Amino acid sequence: MTASDATPRAETPHIPERLLLGAGFLAVYLGLEWLSFIHEFNGLPVTPWNPGLGVGFALMVLRDPRYALVLFAGIVISEAFIVGSHLEKPVVALVAGIIAGGYALAAFLVRREFRIDISLTRLRDVLVLLGTGAATVICATLLLTAVLVTSGDLTREDAWLPATAFLVGDLIGIAVTTPLILRFARRNRAAVLSPRLFGEIALLAGAVAVALWLVAGDESRDGHKLFYVLFVPVVAAALRGGLDGACIGLAMTQIGLVGLLRARAYDAIVFTEFQGMMLALTLTGLIVGIVVTERREADRLVRAAEARIKEKEEELARAGRFSLVSGLASALAHEINQPMAAARALARSAQQLLNMPQGDMARAERNLETAIAEIDLASGIVRRMREFLRRGKPQVSPVEFGTLVEEILPLIRPEAAGRKIALNHLMTPDLPAIAVDPVQIQQVILNLVRNALDSIGGAGQADGLVTIEAKVSGDGRFLVASVCDNGPGIAPELAGKLFDPLTTSKPEGLGLGLSICRAIIDAHRGRIWLDQTPGATYFHFAIPLETPISKA
Question: What percentage of the chain reaches a pLDDT higher than 70?
Fold first, then answer.
């Protein structure tokens, strides 16, 4: 956010608002001039800092550079009634014009060209603000000195001392007051008026008062040898409150020092030394404060980014859950469709047999038994899938693989016979038991066998053959089962992605059967793969044995 973006009302404020704000600034400026002014030296007001100028610069940056007209009026009034300058009125007007015009240009550059963030949360923005203000102070000091030397109000020999005091005072005024006003102008009112903030300010004021008391009591050392003590509360405030704390601590210190300098009436040399040390204190406090503020702002941005990432993760998780529910519904529809379709066909066949005058009661009974088995299979699929989602892993138990195959053969033989496809099973003798979820492994075998039947049936082969095989792997660690068919095989463009969801070679297929098979085998810590040879297509899957068999 830039200055121009942050203050859209500044371009066209209401006239009463502008007049009220201008009058308020004029009163504040004159009051600060009266408080901070100590004495005049050859036409230039000598002050430890110039807070009024800092307020004016902040107002022009925050609102409108045209408030320089109010600053011009304030300088003229101050020179006449507060400073009591002996300068001629044209010279005073020229001095006021140089100062007001210089800061109006500086505010314009800060707002329009450099486009700083007025909240001053970055070191770059503070450096631009202070650099522009410092350049303006230097140029204004040089011009004012030249004007006074040209008018005869100041000699070249005497120019350096008041010019230096004027330069450092204005620099301190801008460095302390301008950031303070800009920062608090963007603060929430509740935060500014919070009791906690007032408590911390009171504690800081006490620390500053103690440090000033130590400085003031050091009369034997010209009152400025213990100046370094003032660094303690200012740096502590900067570490505690960042740039805000530094500005408040510096403002308190400057106010206390003005009172000290008024009370002691130091000569010009000691006064200039005080100003130099105050400038060093100001720069130190501001640098520490902005570094702390920038670090906190970076931490805040990191936390905000982490919160956004977490929010996105939650959105993705919700989308994943919706996708899971959708996939589960499709998977259930796919897996239940086959046994339910078979059960319906068997029940319809039994109904027709019973309605015949000479009905084959034995055949009808076998059909109904097979239909019940198909329905039980569908029920088992739903139950085991629900358990898998709830537990996250299959519900395993030791079973004989041959037994699994024998149990599902009655379910698949009628379909194979109806398509005139031979169905065989070859099992190695004495196969060891495997720890699996029986219903899920049977689901895999049925899917693979039915896919083989569909492939052969779709090709219209008259000599179709599907074989279920099982044996122990060569290393004795796995039971390897295979479903082989002599159908047309899998197209090469599909073979590499056959186990991916929504990949199918069937016109009406969902592309979920093989992906479900892979998910089941993966859940059993096994693997499934395709192998094709001329005239034969193999789907293998391997399940780890509970106790590996050692090979001699």
Answer: 78
